[in-house]
Amino acid sequence: MITNFSDSNSLFNHFLAEIRDEVIQKDRLRFRRNLERISEIMAYEISKTFNYSPVTVTTSLGDAETSLSKDSIVLATILRAGIPMHQGFLNYFDKADSAFISAFRNHSTEEKFEIEVEYCASQNLNDKILIISDPMLATGNSMVSVFEVLKKYGNPKEIHIACGIATPEGLALLEKKVPQSTKIWVGAIDDELTAQSYIVPGLGDAGDLAYGEKI
Questions:
Q1: What is the distance of C-alpha 31 from the center of its chain?
Q2: pTM, two decimal places
Q3: Do 34 and 13 form a contact (C-beta atoms < 8 A)?
Q4: The 3-state secondary structure of 26-37, one letter per residue
Q5: Main-chain phi, psi angles of 66, to 5 degrees
Q6: How far apart are CA 74 and CA 95, in angstroms?
Q7: What is the CA radius of gyration of the chain?
Q8: Which residues contact 27 (CB under 8 A, 6 or more apart)?
């Protein structure tokens, strides 16, 4: 199931527009905060899919009835571009565990590359809700590689993949490579993927915009 936040009008669109805006992008703090903001909205929407049980909360004046989720959550992200989104999810799922994966494109030519995963730190994922976040889903190969590595850490009961901007090609690959029950959440779907596998109009290199250009 794919949820595209751009299919409806909301405050989400404002934050996404600022993330794309080449003038506003020059403010790294604002760029990172906007990535957090879209993740916070995604976290709220994802939370609606969880299981809830009735509980009683005792106040100084009496008892209040509500419903809370007792699910265990693991937030996974891809270094380094995914860190602001990870923080946004962590702002809302503040009791969640975290998993970090280092993945990068190893180019043999300008247009040909393989995804290499160098590092992964994760908890046991058995019976957990796994949420994987990354700002960009271009070809989808990075996300699939990360998912394959995370499979070694257990079998989650739910899997959510959250991306700021995706392409039809990336989404099609995920539909083939991840379990059918996986829920995919995207801020927008851009139609063009260049020969170098960059999204157009996209937003540029999220990692560079958030933390500075790498050598």
A1: 16
A2: 0.92
A3: no
A4: HCHHHHHHHHHH
A5: -150, -175
A6: 9
A7: 18
A8: none
Which pLDDT tens digits describe the chain residue by residue (215 residues)?
A: 899 999 999 999 999 999 999 999 999 999 999 999 999 999 999 999 999 999 999 999 999 999 999 999 999 999 889 999 999 999 999 999 999 998 776 656 666 767 777 889 999 999 999 999 999 999 998 899 999 999 999 999 999 999 999 999 999 999 999 999 999 999 999 999 887 788 999 999 999 999 998 87
Residues 6 or more apart in contact with residue 170 via CB below 8 angstroms: 137, 138, 139, 140, 143, 163, 193
How do 2-4 and 63-68 pair as beta strands? unpaired
Rounded CA gap, 89 and 44, in Å? 9
Q: Which tokens in the block code for residue 57?
A: 């909360």
What's the farthest any 2 CA atoms get from each other in the chain? 69
> Where do the domains of the chain lie, and which CATH numbers do they carry?
2-51+71-211 (3.40.50.2020)
* SS3 annotation, the chain: CEEEHHHCCCCHHHHHHHHHCCCHHHCHHHHHHHHHHHHHHHHHHHHCCCCCEEEEEECCCCEEEEEECCCCEEEEEEECCCHHHHHHHHHHCCCCEEEEEEEEEEECCCCCEEEEEEEEECCCCCCCEEEEEEEEECCCHHHHHHHHHHHHHCCCCEEEEEEEEECHHHHHHHHHHCCCCCEEEEEEECCEECCCCCEECCCCCHHHHHHCCCC
